[in-house]
Amino acid sequence: xxxxNLRTFTWTAMTCTAKFWLDPVQLAANFxxxxxxLRTIQSIVIESKVRFLEAWxxxxxxxxx
Length: 65
Description:
This protein has 1 helix and 3 strands, in the order βββα. It is an alpha+beta fold and 65 residues long. The radius of gyration is 12 Å and the shape is elongated.
């Protein structure tokens, strides 16, 4: 994984948090989610990856990479 690309997505629910690298989609950290919940979240992140990356770049521009 290219660590120069720092774009991530964080999913939080109640007291649980999961952080995913966006390119490529990969779990970076998990605090409290069960395996089946992580699979569901990862599927959502994969399906929404392009939208998340566009939003990230729109907010941070090239400096956010």
